[in-house]
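user: Kindly work through both lines:
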Amino acid sequence: MKPKILAIIPARGGSKGVPRKNIRLVGGKPLIAYSIEAAKAVGDLFHRVIVSTDDPEIAEISKTYGAEVPFLRPENLGDDKMPMVPVLQHAVNFIEEQDQIKLDWVFLLQPTAPMRTPEDIRAAIQIAQEGTSDSVISVVQVFAVHPILMKKIDGNRLLPFCIEEKEGTRRQDYQPAAYMRNGSIYLTRRDVIMNDGSIWGKEICPYVMPEERSLNIDSEQDLKLVDLALTERNQHD
C-alpha cells in the first residue's frame, strides 16, 4: 500500500535573526512559497501538505500558494526556543484525529531551504521506501569547513583538532569526504517522532544534494544570496 506521508512546513511568525523571514520576498515570491510549491508539485506522494504556523498573515499567504493551514499553532508552540519535535507531534496528532488515520512518515520541509526541487523530494521518499532506516536527511559535501582544516590550541601550539593536515594538501584530496546537514529534507518515520521524540532516529540514510541547492537562510546576508539565486533560477524556468 502507498505510505501515508504528511508534509509539514513549519513557519513561526516571530523570527528574530531575520524578522518575518518566512514571508520575506526572495526571487519575487514569499520565502515560504518555494517549499509549498515544491511539495505541491509532488502532491501525489503526500497525504496532505500543511503549514504549521502561529501567524495569521503567514497562514493566509500559505493558503494562497496552495498549502493547507488546518490550525493555528498553539501559543506555547510558537516560542523561538521551542524544539521542532513538539511542533511536529502536535501536527501529527491533529491530522490523525481529523482524518481518522495513522500516518507512516512525516516530511519536514523547512522554509529556510528554498532551493530544494520536487525531484529532491521524490528521491528522498524513494530512498526511504527502499530501506529500513528511521529517517532520510539531506546533506551537502563540504570543503571550506572540512574537519581536516579544524585546529585546536594547546598552550601556544596549533594542533590538528581531529585529522592531521599535511602541508600542501589540496581540497580535492581531503579524506575522508565530509558532509553537513543542509536543512532541506528531514523525512522521518511517524513512530520515531511520536514514540521516540526524535527527528533523526537511530539509523539515518543520507540524501546528498549539490551545493547550489543547499543554500539555507540564517541571516540577512543569506537572504540576499538566496534572492539572487532564486531570481536567476526563476528567469530560466
